[in-house]
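Troubleshooting: if your tokenizer reports a length mismatch, compare against these two reference records.
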Amino acid sequence: MRIALIVTVIAVAFGLGWLSSQQTMPMSESAGSGNPAEESSDSKPLYWVAPMDANYRRDKPGQSPMGMDLVPVYAEENSGRDDGGVTISAAVRANLGVKTQAVSRGAVSVPVRTVGYVTDDEDQLIHVHSRIAGWVEVLHVRSLGETVNRGEPLYEIYSPELVNAQQEFLMSERLRRGSEVTATGGKLRALGMTDSQIANLKKTGKVRERITVFAPGSGYVAALPARAGMYVRPDTEIMAIGSRDTVWVIAEFFERQSGLVMAGQAVEFATPSMPGTRWEATIDYVYPELDAKTRTLRARVRVPNPEGRLRPNMFVNLTMDAPIGEDLLTIPRPALIQRSGSQHVLLAEEDGYFRPVPVKTGQEAGDRVVIREGLKEGQQVVVSAQFLIDSETSLEAAMLRLEPEEQNTAGMTDNSMGSMSGMDTNESADPIQSRGVITEINTEKRKVTLNHEPIPALNWPSMTMGFSVAPEVTLNGLSKDDTVVFTLTPAGKGQQVTSITKPDSAHD
């Protein structure tokens, strides 16, 4: 109920007060839209209220403590409903720019953005190890990234074990022991000799001290820990050969996003090194555990790379749309109002009636919010003119209006703007010049009431306001209905007139 009262206060105070004051101003652009009082000329006002304070009521026309004209409230504005709503006329709604959208139902997906990096396709990565212990005497591959083809020599190794095995094979051949020849030939193959090398050994009868090892596949040298002269064993990696025909993109998702990631989801990614180029692929595999240090979930994306444009260790920005439901109610994000732990929307009904409705929300999906309770499909919610209820100052002002009138009006100055929602009275510390029409002038109290143009520097619309006048400013020669050029300078919590002249006598 408290939220309903706040919405009612703000909607009445600003929607009816501010816009009605604008409609009566000859200098306002919206002056031609008409006066609500004129539109309701056939009915008698119930009472008059201050535009900036709905609790300030009088039984006859006049001015508020802020120097603004009181606004009439007619019987048709009171719907008689006890739901905290308010009726706003079509003219006022048009001037406010109130827009609504329907509550919709359908499939909802959440846009997810993360980062990742390119790495080798480990399914095509070949690790080259020696099958025997020995010394690498010749290394044919000398640098990382070097391209090799299947069958090309990689290195030459000297191994006493391999030399002995060759001698055993030749001795079995001389003695023509068939079973031993077969056994010793199999041993040579197991130690890394190829069939052609064994055949050449059998043909020449000469033991080779260094045996050449050939590339088992084509690609580029992805790792080269071995060097010429190094002693190696079977557990020593001599080099690794990778392929760029396909690469992996490893994406890292925050823990809160982990529930949205699954294999088969379509993704898009780009790399800063190639602006304007995007790749489309699908998640191939989701790793079962989160990284203990980074608290991220890794997912693997397999990407064809026939031209080799994607290189290992490249940084990528990855996006995807993660579905969260097929039949969910949603509203536009601007329609949701969150205050003090509560959530509600303004529901638009027939005949310009607006009422606050509390809601329970689910997940945010881009520019929409899932609604779990409180609304039905097809209902209209307000999505614009949210400044009436969205700013902190308007809420504070509304809370003040709920206090007794004695407290609410105490200490209010003629140009006090503390309760003006969405307007900054001291946004600029520099003097600000504007134009207006004098509606009242009091030379003894040094006060002047001006119907002024919009003042963008202070975020003020066109309105009628009272101001105090600086002691050094002369008011001689000025009277009601004069068009003037005036200067405002911050003074205390408000603004003070520090110069005021007629346009024909102004120097600027």
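Reference record two:
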Amino acid sequence: MQSTPHALVQSSMHLDNGQDARMPVLAAALAHRRLVNDNAALRLMRADLLPVVAAVLGEYLGAPGARVSVDEMHERLSAELDEVRDHFDLGNKSAKAYCDDWRDAGLIIRRPALQARGETYELSSEARDALRIVEQLDSPQTTVTESRLVALMAAVHRLALETDTDVTRRLDALMVERAHIDREIERISGGDVEVLDDRRATERLADILLQAQGLPADFARVRARFEELNQELRAGILAVDEVQSTVLDDIFRGVDLIESSDEGRTFTAFSSLLRDPEQSSRLDADVTDILDRDFAQGLEPGSRRALRGLVRDLKNGSREVHGVLTDFARGLRRYVYSQEFQRDRVLRVALQEALAAALPASVRSRPFTEIGRELELSAMGWNSVGEVVPHDPSEFDAGESLVEVQTHAVDFAALAVIARETEIDYDELTRNVNDVVRSRGPSTVAEVLNVHEATQGLASVVGLLSLAARFGRVDRDRREQIAWTGAADKHRRTAEIVVHRFTETVPA
């Protein structure tokens, strides 16, 4: 049977449509392949040692804001590996080697310690995503919860309302909401109070905690993006051939370039909401009320701790990202002001000139082609034997013979006294702050000093201000008088400071 021209056209159209249909699949497959190769979370999910890696990282670094010193991590992991090797084929790698592998894979990040010397490990945002996936697979949500549907509908309605430019429709929607609220007020005033049953309340709380689990990864992701923007900005500063004053104008133009990015604006909006005293206090009070409810008494200890620490974790994460942003801004300013900026720009120009000069030669010569010239190494040579200075052991003579010192028992109380003379006793200050906050609620530094004397004088005052700056709130628009007794001369002193308020207990 012969095909008609119409049939041939139809057949051709079907073929073309099939090819077009397959191309998006191919493009998506290629994109997914790049994602699998580049994304640390997916690399971990297909790793042979996923059970061990997930267990180790979850145990040591899984908590919000968790950081472990490098030495402690190596020591603890080394002890764990001795037991794990009995059940898993781990080879003979050391704990440090495993940590190096995880760092290279983008699972952990090694940073300078914030409050001490040395370095610490922390989870990357991709690793947190992977651990959340493992946890959700281990304890899956078996049903579509009512709370998720309610939250979804509320979010959709709010988005539709707040993006509507029609004044009449927005007023009508608000009138409907007001009528609903009026009916609720009338119903409750009449004694008809509907309370969620324990099952539904527990279900909604589980959804809240599930959302909260993603916050540490979000904070880590924002920090990582800020670091990328910082590097991009530094590279951009070197790339432009402008004078220093022009570069400074770019950095100091009201808002830092990093803060004006999409990530910066989004985080600023979140942080502003969290720092709002009314919003923060309301959230804190709501959490306290929930924990006092009857249904919350049957929660697992882990869920209670997560809910109790929700506000604290939010504030700590926000404060840490703000600190990173501030450090970047200061670093950029120092970089531009310093000679380092000028040196890097000169080095960049020199490298560009060298590359430009090498380009014509690369057409004729390969990297290992003989060029007929020998270049002297930059090692220092000797021109005279007199330049050689022999080692004289007498110069390193201690002057006295070594003697064996007899060991004796150490008086811990005496050591504690010596330590207090040189270090701020933060343990004592933490106990004092928590005692006042638990008994009186949110308290200022002055109120803490009124209850507990500054036993170390000015050092105690400085320590309280440091704790308040880290775990409290600073109200720069208000001031207060503080008083303390000097540790050495016992003279009474007073000072006027910006109000530092402890809104919650300080972590011990």
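Descriptive notes for reference record two:
- Strands lie at 68-69, 108-112, 119-123, 443-444, 473-485, 492-502.
- The mean pLDDT is 76.
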